[in-house]
Amino acid sequence: MHQMRIVQLVFLFMLCIPMFSIAQSDGGYAGVKGATEFAIPVSPAFDILGINPSQVTRPCNIRDFKVDWSFRSWRLKPNIAIQAQPVWEILYNRPDLRKYRKASKLMQTLSTLDISVGTIEDDDLTRRLSVAAKINLYRERDPLLSPAAFQNIESTYGEERDAIQSQIDEIKKLKRVNRTHEIRDSLSDVIDDLLNQRDLLDRTQKERIQEVAKDYVQKYWNASYLDFAYGRIYSYQNDSLSNLVLNGEGYAIWMNGCMGLGRKMLLSGIVKYTAINTDLSQSSQMKGIFSMGANFRYGSPRFNFFAEAFYSNSSEDVAFDKSNSALTQVTHFSASYGGDWRISRNVLLSYGVRTNYDDGFEFKNLIPVASVSCMMR
Question: CA-CA distance, 363 to 335, in Å (whole number)?
């Protein structure tokens, strides 16, 4: 069960990231935690399984911890994925943006590396696990690097907060050298008042940064991006909670990008290679599947609708058999339509209907899919 141990370790690591991020905070407002992402895409861990409403996923940089739920029926199924950016959380998730802005282009690119882990269960009790890593190679807009976006409010906030902190430090020095209880109590009251002022300033700054980021994201919601990703898939027969039997595995590597058209349109594309093996007695018999697709979106940062076409080909037709496609949910042709509704700055509802066709373009089935993505700010 070596693969199970790997997945468990990744899950544990990702669950520890938010706690580490909280522990490193110095009590000030982390200004970068505003809604600075242009979109909330479904995790790559779900993308590799082919269960997203859109198979041509939208590239983006989340800069936070995220949880996804996917629904393909009205039954309650434990289809969940978690996603985080460890480099960003450890090195650059700070109360101000100076360290990130001073970092090299390489480190700024590495900060976009995110890791996601997902698990879904089919109606026949087949459980699939996936682990994926994605990095952003190109982004047309980065709100955190825009000198004009946050410059005014950052400079004012820094001056006001430094002034309050200087008063707190001076009064603490007086309190340490004074032994009179009445005076020490009075100084403690003054410190409490200054701390309340600092907290109020932090909350006000939080609201300012969120408004600036909101305006920036609304203006450039369809900015161009290019992502590169790699992931692993494992399929288990879930006979019981204590007995998981590995019956398939595979991997996928893909690149997808998007380009804005005007103020309301976004064109996305993907190129993907998937290799799967459902006969573990013949480990060298991997079946390769080449896929490509295009997606057209129209709307705004809060509501947008899409239509897409997706094509897959393999040198072995057996790669599209039901037993194999259950691992990655791939068919020769598929067309999807649906949309995204950003319910709030932290929650996105994605929905779609996918129609699948065989190599003769004969209709096979129709699959409704919905997912909820939640930023854990």
Answer: 11
